[in-house]
Structure formats: C-alpha cells, structure tokens
Amino acid sequence: MPRSYYTGLTGPSHDPSAQTGVLLVNLGTPVAPTARAVRPYLAEFLGDPRVIEYPRWLWWPILHGVILRLRPARSAHAYARIWTAEGSPLRVGSEKLAEGLQDKLRRDRGEPIRVALAMRYGEPSVRAQIEQLQREGVRRLLVLPLYPQYSATSTGSVIDAVADTLKHLRWPPELRIVNDYHDDNDHIEALALSIERGWAVHGRGEKLLLSFHGIPQRYVDAGDPYFNQCHTTARLLRARLGLDESRLVVSFQSRVGREPWLQPYTDATVRRLAAEGIRRLDVACPGFAVDCLETLEEIAMQNRDFFTAAGGETLRYIPALNDSPEQVNSLAVLIQRHMQGWPACAATATPHHGYGGKSA
Ligand SMILES: C=CC1=C(C)c2cc3[nH]c(cc4nc(cc5[nH]c(cc1n2)c(C)c5CCC(=O)O)C(CCC(=O)O)=C4C)c(C)c3C=C
Ligand SMILES: [Fe+2]
Ligand SMILES: [Fe+2]
Within a domain: residue 205? Predict the structure, then answer.
C-alpha cells in the first residue's frame, strides 16, 4: 500500500506496515507506593460495577466514605514492600512481556506486528492504546487480557473497556478478543516446566498449593465460570505433573470485605497444612501472568509468615511465568492461533519457511 493512502486517515505518525496489532491488557497498578497514588487507582478499580456488584446507591457511600479513607494507606504500605527501582513489578513485568512478544511474533510471522500494553485501571488506558494503535495504521486488533481464567470481574471488565472505546471510533479495527486460555496446552506446559525447573533447583516441597485470586461466591453462583476454569487448570496440571489431589491443592486468596468468597481461603489453607505437619510447601499462582502485589507480597511474604508461624519450615513461592521464554512462546502460539485468517501484510511480508518452494 502506498503510504499516502493511509496518511490522511490515521495521522502522520503511523507505521503503515504494522496493520496487525495485539493489545495485552493487565489489571493496572498505582504509579507510586504512596496513599496519594493508590487512592485514585483504587477508586477506579473498586468503582467498576464489574468488580463490585452492589447497587451504586449502596456502594458509593461505603467506597468514598469508608474504604477510600482507610485502604489507600494500608495498600501503599504493602506496595512499598515490593516496589523496585524500575517501579511496580506488575507494570515492569507486563512491559517486558509485551516487548518479548513483539520480538517473537515479528520473527515468527515475518511481518511487523505491533504489540502494545494497556492497563484496565490507570495508565496507559485501553482507550489511549487502541487510539494509538489506530493512529499507527493498525486495522486488525487482537486483544489478549492477561488473565488465563475468565471472570466477569477481570476479563469481562476488559471487554467493557474495549467496547466503550470502539463507540468513539469512526472506523474501528477488525476485532478479536481472547476470552481465556485456562486449558491451553502450551500454557499448561509452560506452567509445568516452570514448576519442574523450580523443583530441579530447590527440591520438591511435600505439597504444591495453587493459589488463585478469589472473587465473591455470589458471582460464581450467578454463572461466572471462573471457579470451574481455575479447577480445570489445576486438574490439567495434576495430570501433567503426575500429582494427585492430596499433593496438588487449590485455594483462593485476596479476599476483600465480609461476604463469602471462593473457598478454601489461601491463608487458612497454609495454616492448616502447617498444622497437619507439612514442613516444606511450594506455592504457585497460575492465575497471574506476571508477578504483582498479590503474589510477591501476599503469598511470598504474608502467607510465608502465616505458614512458618503455624509450624511450617519453608514456603517456596514459584514465580509467575512473567517474560520467560516459556510464556513468550506459549502466548505467541496462542496469539497466532487467534489471528488465523488474517493476512500477513503484503508490502512487508517476507517469504519464510513453509510457504512456496517444493513443500507439499
Ligand atoms: C474487591 C474486589 C476484587 C475482586 C472481585 C478482584 C478480582 C480479581 N483481581 C485480579 C487480579 C489482581 N488484583 C490485584 C489487586 C487488587 N485486587 C483487589 C480487589 C479485587 N480483585 C484490590 C483492592 C487490589 C489492590 C490491592 C489492595 O488494595 O489489596 C492485582 C495486583 C495489582 C498490582 O498492582 O500489583 C492483580 C493482578 C483478578 C485476576 C481477579 C479476578 C479473577
Ligand atoms: Fe503494509
Ligand atoms: Fe484483585
């Protein structure tokens, strides 16, 4: 395509060769580990009706009158424990993953695919990043929420943000959205390899606990598939690792508020296991693509303390897949499967293995 064909429509800064874009979306994180920075982040997050399903007239006074006065300082204190010189682990890890995927996809497909990262809450927003991709000339967009298991509170909310953005575009791109990848073979294999590598280096704990982020039980009762998808991931990992239900245990963390959330709770589980005589416990959090507050602070610090206080010796946290080659490879395969039928860009595609020549 001649460059001039695009310029008038999409603005001067686009790269007309990257017509296919991938938008990774993660939850979002405050810009600094301070109450002042955490407050607007929590206000946006906990003001999302997908996350808190109470009528607004009931929830708004509690959120603004109580929660946003107390929680920011407490959360900021937790964030301060995991903050790095580069910033929030969730943001840094997600950015590295996006870069790794862009390199990998360009190599695999022989075309300049653009991979961008957005945050559902805070910056860079879904809207800003889709508009940016569009300015760059992207006409086919694959959205990949970085949540392996679908929940209305996480993936569903990303879909809302994408849909809201499209309303404002005169000429929206062709769109696909990955709903979940909780049972994807390559993903399960990547998780298994990372767990086995941990065992090879540190030895095996007596049990492996998979701790997933919780949600209110009420949401699952109303039809959210999240609980089932978490258990399917666990079942597939059991089969792949050769562990039975007594060796690989599932629990749910990060409960907020008073209503019942998915059970068993992670904190009660690590205490129970220690009380039952388990001394070495491995914990992985396969619901998190990238390490964050909920893994680095809640699991690797808080729950480690609960475990040892209850008589356990070592709780070893097995890191998230982050930007490891295993995760870059498995997500690159997933992305390309979801792009099937989308042409490689004609002007820039280079012939590569598998096309033309003498192959059958
Ligand atoms: C109160 C309701 C919440 C629901 C429902 C919920 C679901 C949910 N969350 C994640 C992933 C993450 N959550 C993170 C932090 C976090 N979560 C909540 C509340 C709910 N989450 C709060 C209030 C916070 C902020 C921290 C705190 O104050 O405790 C994070 C980490 C972000 C970071 O900056 O590191 C992630 C990731 C999923 C996948 C999910 C539903 C399945
Ligand atoms: Fe092109
Ligand atoms: Fe959360």
Answer: yes
